[in-house]
# Entry
Amino acid sequence: MTEVDVSTISLRALRAVVAVADAGSFTRAALHLGLGQSAVSHAIARLEKTLGLELFVRRRDGVEPTDAALRLLTRIRAALADIGAALDDVMSGPDGGAVAISASTSLATYWLIPRLADFKQQHPGIDLRVLTTDSDRDVGRDDADLWIPLGTIDDPALESVPFCAERLIPVAAPALADRLVGGDPADLLHAPLLHLEERYNPRFDWPRWFRDHDVVLGSELPGDRSNDYSLILHGALAGNGVALGWEHIVRELLDDGQLIAVGPATQTGVAFPLLNRRSEALDPGVVIFREWLLANAPT
# Structure
């Protein structure tokens, strides 16, 4: 068996193998790496020539890793994680470093950011990078260390632990709440409703809330709409209508009286997860922040 001169293999080529395997295409991998598609293709081709192995089967709708690539990927991921951990240790010391978490804009705004002062007081050496997104398409594929997605994620490459239960409450500003008849879910059929238009995956909406409370819908529900949940909450706070509030996001707004519950809650039986990659040993700072998130998770 011919011995490979590892000095001829670049770190970029190894990162390209991981990116292409995760993305399923050279084009998407190039976007993730911030490179041109040709640069990724050439890096893979040079590595295949050096190894004397085919790493990807090219298909019309993308690429698929070969058995050789799958064996190689396990080692590459571990090696890249070790390199990253070593660099972090050198740059920031054993208890420091930067931790990146990806969450929805509304969760970051109304739950996470107000609590970070407490975390920073306990762990001043850990820098945090909060990435906001309103899609789960890049969960496990971007450069975050931890993710709190919008829904359940079925990905064997990610370790998942429950973060909080999904519970929804109709909420309105006090002035509007005072004008609504309380008690009967059907009363909200005549209220101005604020609707979230999900861009990628359907989420809990007003028709489902009414069905869960045995209210028969005669036609499409009127009301203002937005595809940004933060705007929905801003509209509710401004008195523009009634919003469905995910409890872990609106709890403090309810506790301080900025919003009022105007109908019964619904619990879906689904838990929002906290995710991290299985293939990477977590840096000390990531472990500390992950444990803090779980200790402070909404109940």
